[in-house]
Amino acid sequence: MKKKILVVDDEPSISMLIEFNLKLVGFEVHCVYDGEAVFQAIQHFRPDVIVLDLMLPKMDGIQVCRKLREQNNLVPIIMLTAMQDLSDKIAGLDNGADDYMTKPFSPQELISRIQAILRRLQTLPSTVENAPLTVGQIEIQADQREVTLRGQTIELTPKEFDLLLFLCKHRGKVLSRQQLLHGVWDYHFLGDTRIVDVHISHLRDKIEHNARNPEYIVTIRNVGYKLTEPAMKESLA
């Protein structure tokens, strides 16, 4: 069965270019041209990945992303932006986007990133053990893509889940941002590695007792991050 990609861009020339290239490699593609149209398209088309432009009429990409995540819709989102300002890219990630690309971009690079997302979602269930992974009071049921903290389910985006699982599998090991990009995003990222920092920040907000003083995901200055087993006192907090 063909994987479905929803393309959301108000510039017909860009939408047509993306659609043409995605169809060439076997994807089923549906295009809409404003933010409000996304929600009806999702109900009928049920995409596997959304390629979402930042600047859209009626509802911009950040608003769309935020609303989808508020509805607990975890479909992976790649944000497109013509803006070079890092703050705009970070805003997209802060509101639930899994990745971003800056226009102009290579269609092949977009295809590679979509394929990387799908590859991770498809291969994970068949390559993990059924036994849960446990770190402190965090339990990860990899085959079901579920995470609990102190017995309570926590909602993670697909990329947040992949990042936490990767850290857990390499617990105690210092991982550079490039290692995390390759291991979690499944490609050698060319550009700003801040995408890792943003997702780490989101994870800390959801799993740490105090995100400003993390006990699970520790920053190793000038290197990257490490997942650690918190002190026993955390369980008594």
TrEMBL record:
SMART domains: REC (SM00448), Trans_reg_C (SM00862). Gene3D superfamilies: 3.40.50.2300, 6.10.250.690, Winged helix-like DNA-binding domain superfamily/Winged helix DNA-binding domain. Residues 130-229 bind DNA. Residues 4-118 form the Response regulatory domain. The modification 4-aspartylphosphate is found at residue 53. Keywords: DNA-binding, Phosphoprotein, Transcription, Transcription regulation, Two-component regulatory system. Residues 130-229 form the OmpR/PhoB-type domain. This is Response regulator. The lineage of its organism: Bacteria, Bacillati, Bacillota, Bacilli, Bacillales.
